[in-house]
Amino acid sequence: MSLSVVKYGELVLRQKGARIERMTPDLKKFIDQMFETMYHARGLGLAAQQVGRALQLTVLDIREATGRPSTLEIEGKTVDAADFMPLVLINPEIKPLGEPVPGPEGCLSFPEIYCDITRPESIEVKARNEKWEQLSFRCGGLLARAIQHEYDHLQGILFIDRMTREQKAEFKPELEALQAETKAALAAKKRNGLQ
Ligand code: ZN
User: Fold this and answer.
1) Closest by Cα among 90, 85, 107, 108 to 3
2) I need a labelling partner for 25 at 20 to 30 A (CA). Which of 98, 131, 153, 176 fits?
3) Where are the beta strands (DSSP E) in 97-148?
């Protein structure tokens, strides 16, 4: 079952995710639903907050974005990032390595808003996966960008927070309209007794 994606204006997007202590059947099912939701929306990544649960959990699959290269290194060995997909990151920790570089980003919680965001080119990642295995790797390019975007979500940080002052001014009308639309949709749901 595909879940509905939370849009900008809902408070859960601003909540820091709770640490996950162990894998449970409920969590396994939730992870499957997150993948289904992400693929359905044609996203490269999805954070738990984006489907309404503030947890340290994100899913990614960058294979669709064939024109944007990624690098991946596990235990000093270079591997193909595509072979590492799909990817589940639980309680991730990241360390920036490369120089900050700008690159295009979008977000399923911000339909039709795309903007160049500056982030470190490569990162070191430590996390657990859905099998509760400890992962440790270095990555660059699109994968590093996607993981940093999702990691931010888990802290309640959104890509608009990383826009420059000029970009914020440029997108202000769209962001205000989106926020108003989300709040109106929530109010309507409440009136209809759905929430
Ligand atoms: Zn996002």
Assistant:
1) 108
2) 153
3) 100-107, 110-120, 122-128, 134-140
3-class DSSP state of 85: coil
Q: Which one-letter amino acid corresponds to residue 190?
A: K
| The amino acid at 163 | M
Kindly list the structural domains of the chain, giving each domain's residue range(s) and its CATH number in brackets, ordered by start: 11-163 (3.90.45.10)
φ and ψ of 39, to 5 deg: -65, -40
**pLDDT tens-digit profile of 154-183?**
999 999 999 999 999 999 999 999 999 999
Distance from the alpha carbon of residue 11 to the mean position of ligand 1, in angstroms: 14
Single out the catalytic residue among 10, 105, 130, 150: 150
What does the pLDDT look like over 25-66, one tens digit per residue? 999 999 999 999 999 999 999 999 999 999 999 999 999 998
- Among 41-45, 74-78, 121-125, 191-195, the minimum mean pLDDT is found in 191-195
- CA dist list (Å): 41 to 5, 15, 44, 52: 9, 22, 9, 16
**Is 130 one of the annotated active-site residues of the chain?**
no
Ligand 1: centre distance to CA 108 (Å): 6
The rounded Å distance from CA 55 to ligand 1 centre is 15
Instruction: Say how many Å lie between the CA of residue 43 and the centre of ligand 1.
Output: 9
